[in-house]
Every structure is written in C-alpha cells, then in structure tokens.
Amino acid sequence: MSGERFEFGIFTFGERTRRADGSAVAPRERLEEVLRWARTADQAGLDVVGVGEHHRSDFAISSPPVVLAAIARETARVQLTSTVTVLSSADPVRVFEDFATVDLLSDGRAEITAGRGAYLESFPLFGLDLERYDEYFEDRLDLLLALRRDEDVTWSGTTRAPLDSAPVHPRPVGDLPVWVAVGGTPQSVVRSGRLGLPTYLAVLGAPDRFAPLAELYRRSAAEAGPAALASARVGVTSHFHAAPTSQGARDEFHEPYAGYIGQNMPRVGRLDRPAFEAWAGPRGALVVGSPAEIVDKILWEHEVLGHERFLAQVGLGSVAQDATLRSIELLATEVAPAVRAALRHDGATSAVRA
User: Fold this and answer.
1) Residue 47 neighbours by CB under 8 Å, 6+ apart
2) H or E element: which one contains 310?
3) Residue 16: how many CA atoms within 13 Å on its side-chain side?
4) Fewer CB within 10 Å, N or C, the chain?
5) Contact 43, 328 (CB under 8 A)
6) Residue 310 CB-density burial (10 A; 0-12 exposed, 13-18 middle, 19+ buried)
C-alpha cells in the first residue's frame, strides 16, 4: 500500500481524570484544551481530529457534533469525526442533521463514526431497553445510511417510527463518510465489510489478536462485491504518548496513565510500572515512546493489520498540557512522515519485484 494514503489523527473523549491531589479538570478547562489540541493537529499537518461521546461526570464531551462545530471554525484542513457516536441510543435523523451542519460549517470535512457503545450509560438515560442493544444498532445504522443516500427518505424499522418520503435537511457538502467502530466481535466486522463501511479496530489488547478480524472484514467486503471492497478501509485507534526519548516518554506518562486506567478500567487494578512497560513493549497495544520507537510499532501493526488510518488517543490522565501538545506535534512532524516514507519504499520495492 502506498504511504500517501496512510492517514494520522488524534481523538479524545474529553476525560476529566483526577490529578494527584484528587481534583479533576473542570469541563470548561478540558474543552479549551481539546480546542487547542485540534488547532495544533491542524497546523502541524495531521489528517483527522475526533471527539467521542460519554454521559458521565468524568467526561467533558456528551455531544460530539457541538464540539466538532467549534473545532470546524478554528481549523482549516483536518477531517472532523466522532469517535464515536453511540448510534444505538441516538435518533439517526438528528445525528444526520447535526453532522450535515458540521459538514457545511467545515466545507465538507465532517465524518460520522458509529458505534454500539462500550459504556452503557446512555441507554437508561434516554429510556432505552438494554436487551435490544444489538437491534438498536442494526436498525439505526440502516436508517442512517438511508438518510445519507436519499434526500426524501422512506424507511421502516423496529426501533422508531417509520418515515414516508420525509425530507431531511440540511444536506452535507458531499457524501458524508460513515465509519463503524468495532471492538472484537466477528459479527460486527462482517456487517461492516458487507456494507462496505470503513471500520476502526479499537486496539486495547495485543494487536496481533485483531489480525483475524481485519482479514474477516476484508473477506466479507470482497464477498459483497467490488463496490464494498473499494470502500473498505481499516483504521486503528490506540492510547498514545510521544516524547523526544523513549525513557522520557515513559517517565512522563506512567503515573497519569495509571490514574486514567484506575478511573476508567477498575478491573485492571493498579497499573504498576512493570505492567505499564509490558503494555508499551514492541508487541503491546500501548503506543508510547520516542518517535522512532512509535514508527517501528505502527509499521509492525501495519504488517499485521494492513490498516490505512491511525488515530492516537491523546491527553489521557493528568499529563501536562505542554506535554500533550508536544506529543501531537511529534506525531505529525516525525512519526507520520517516517511511516509514510517506509510504506512508500515498501510499495515501490514490491512493484519492482512484481
């Protein structure tokens, strides 16, 4: 694959992880930091900025399109995506209208990443039945795709009232891309592949265990036909922190990241330094280190997964703002060019051998 097509970006849920003194970042402060991260990503040359959705007190972002609309007016070139929109508990008509508006405000830079939701707080909040978790997603994804395809929509399903030649406006600048985020279920990647929808793998465990899912996704797209295969793309999302040296990155990130894990993944328990080092090792899921070390890991993951987009989850824990900004800049100015150059070289070598 040509390195020119490989895309890099950042994303966040606007976590309000507690600091060492027990205090949490205020929502307004965190949102201002997110805007700064987006401006830095745009100016440094990254391709994508994403914000995710949670409905809890320890996150500052519950409405991705509102935040993306603010980012749209402060950036010029990055794609603006949700990471994710919990489509199972949302009204697809409202989702489409919101993101079409972001698309207009950004001159065609909006994307939707639809997901079922790894956290379940939105279901009771919006009065939805958790026993219909999968049904909600399949039904509402079908409606979202119909809304994207048709200006006057006729649709019927099982989880909301039908539509009969309903005009849905505003319309986006062009085709509004829809990605799907999946965890680790084969059924999810098969669905995405058959629909020809680009798909994110949330790599939180050993990356190589996702290889069969990536292969199943591409095989499902190929079986669905040339159109689905042509639209099939794989993205990878990972926890991320970069610094000029490997040791410096680890020393800077361990304590904030351990706090993040303790707050958001309590079953893991205390992430001590040996466990952290194992996660950050050459075959671990945590992408932390010097630019050269991170380049090697992304290239290895590309050999395993064949992905075409890498999204770094930044600002995790109570890591300092200047360190996060530096991390974003290193991703853009050192990691991305080196990965693309290596992939171009590999592509050219393969072409010569062929």
Assistant:
1) 7, 8, 9, 78, 79, 309
2) strand 309-313
3) 20
4) C
5) no
6) buried
The pTM is what? 0.95
For the packed helices 92-105 and 64-72, what is the interaxial angle rounded to 10 degrees? 10
- Residue whose structure tokens are 């171009």: 344
Helix (H) or strand (E) holding 11: strand 7-12
Q: Express each pLDDT in 126-143 by its tens digit.
A: 999 988 989 999 999 999
Structure tokens at 102: 């972001």
Question: How do residues 238-277 score in pLDDT, each as one tens digit?
Answer: 999 999 999 999 999 999 999 999 888 877 778 999 999 9
- Return the number of other C-beta atoms located less than 10 Å from residue 274's C-beta: 8
Q: Mutual orientation of helices 92-105 and 133-149 as an angle, nearest 10°?
A: 50
Q: What is the SS3 assignment for 316? A: coil
CA distance 116 to 248: 37
If DSSP codes are grouped into helix, strand and coil, which group holds residue 14? coil
Instruction: Supply 275's token pair.
Output: 């466990």
What confidence tens digit (pLDDT) does each residue in 28-56 have? Answer: 999 999 999 999 999 999 999 999 999 99
The DSSP annotation for 30-55 comes to HHHHHHHHHHHHHHHT-SEEEE----
